[in-house]
Design brief:
This protein is α/β, with parallel strands linked by helices. It folds into three domains: 144 residues, Thrombin, subunit H, CATH 2.40.10; 121 residues, Response regulator (Rossmann fold, 3-Layer(aba) Sandwich); 82 residues. The protein has 13 helices and twelve strands. The two termini are 25 Å apart. About 2% of the residues have low confidence.
Length: 385
């Protein structure tokens, strides 16, 4: 895997001016992809392991190694992406099992080169062929699609209920929510503890809780917010916030950053189980919000101390962003960049480096706001397991 930093001086439309092998401009390509999506509907979803997300780029570089060993670089148009692979359109047949490398555009403007194999090649019509590429490792779809909070946790298409296990803390939810969620969990290995107050929640052992489900209205009504009280009491488990469509925008700002996912009522059993399965994957977040160090690693105790420290940094960074204090933001980014990789948070260090680079470019906080908020969110969610 090779990652390339964003070229901040390059025009944003550079890739769109390159021509894919089908010679389709974005407008014509969009119509073709709309037709393919309408034709497919829900077909095949039951057999998929991962959720596919729309990922329409008119030009993606792909290098294919043919059976004789020769390599060819081609420009393809991408259709969708999952944490296991990429679907692209090409003007010719490509042999399944051939190895390939694709340079995929990231949210931050850079690209990442991923290795894989051609898993399938389907003739669509005329010269149009759809190529299914299987990556040689799982990736974080959130690196390529902006809505990272929902994309990463809704990445599993088929959920094995028997494989779901752990303790789920439901905090401040209504009796009806408690009954519905308990019903959805009935065929899993998950046990639910429902509490009406934060005081009841903090009486529990933080290490015994694997998932936290928190009602947004309850969170806003408590002071300090229930999410802050839980985190300060040592509850580091992934946090899912339950909202209604009417109150989704009124979530407490700090809770929005701490949350690993939000669920909008009414909640279906499929979505609930997908979110839990996505959070259990965990490995997709290793190095970003979860330390990649194993508990038996001699440096693991340092990771635990770092988690406490980096959450304080997140609060300071949030204040500095609000006050538009570029120097303070830069100093905090550099602290995180220097320490994070030493304790298993390599991904967090990369986010901090991007924020630092964006700040250095203009020394204007507003120009680096997106990168800074990504960093604050990662720091607030940091945990060791």
């Amino acid at each position: 895997m090779t990652e390339h930093a964003p070229a901040r001086d390059a025009p944003a439309s550079d890739a769109s001016r390159r021509q894919n092998s089908l010679r389709l401009d974005p407008a014509r390509l969009g119509k073709l992809l709309d037709l393919l999506d309408a034709r497919e509907g829900g077909a095949g979803k039951a057999n998929r392991q991962y959720v596919r997300w729309p990922f329409r780029h008119p030009w993606v570089q792909m290098i294919v190694t043919h059976s004789g060993g020769s390599r060819a670089s081609i420009g393809v148009a991408s259709r969708n992406i999952s944490c296991g692979g990429l679907s692209v359109l090409h003007n010719a047949f490509l042999h399944p099992k051939n190895e390939c490398v694709v340079a995929i555009p990231k949210c931050d403007g850079g690209t990442i080169e991923l290795q894989g194999i051609i898993a399938r090649c389907t003739h669509v019509s005329g010269i149009v062929h759809e190529i299914g590429i299987k990556f040689d490792r799982e990736v974080r779809v959130g690196d390529f699609i902006a809505d990272t909070r929902q994309v990463d946790v809704l990445s599993i298409e088929r959920v094995d209920k028997a494989a779901l296990s752990g303790q789920l803390l439901l905090c401040g939810a209504s009796e009806l929510d408690s009954q519905v969620i308990g019903h959805y969990l009935r065929d899993t290995g998950l046990e639910m503890r429902s509490v009406a107050t934060v005081d009841d929640a903090v009486k529990l052992s933080p290490k015994s809780i694997d998932f936290i489900f928190l009602d947004a209205d309850f969170d806003v009504a408590t002071e300090p917010p229930a999410s802050e009280r839980l985190r300060s009491s040592g509850f580091s488990a992934p946090m899912v916030v339950l909202v209604s469509s009417e109150t989704a925008t009124s979530m407490h700002p700090s809770t929005r950053l701490k949350a690993d996912a939000t669920l909008v009522r009414p909640i279906s059993d499929r979505t609930l189980l997908q979110v839990i399965a996505g959070l259990m994957r965990g490995g997709a977040q290793k190095g970003l919000t979860i330390s990649s160090l194993e508990p038996h690693d001699p440096s693991f105790y340092l990771a635990e101390s770092f988690v406490e420290e980096v959450r304080r940094h997140a609060e300071s960074l949030d204040q500095a962003v609000r006050a538009r204090q570029a120097e303070a933001c830069l100093a905090l980014c550099r602290k995180i960049t220097g320490i994070a990789p030493l304790v298993g948070f390599e991904g967090m260090s990369s986010v901090a480096r991007r924020a630092e680079a964006a700040l250095v470019a203009t020394m204007r906080v507003q120009d680096a706001a997106l990168d800074l908020h990504h960093l604050i969110s990662a720091c607030m969610k940091a945990r060791t397991r």
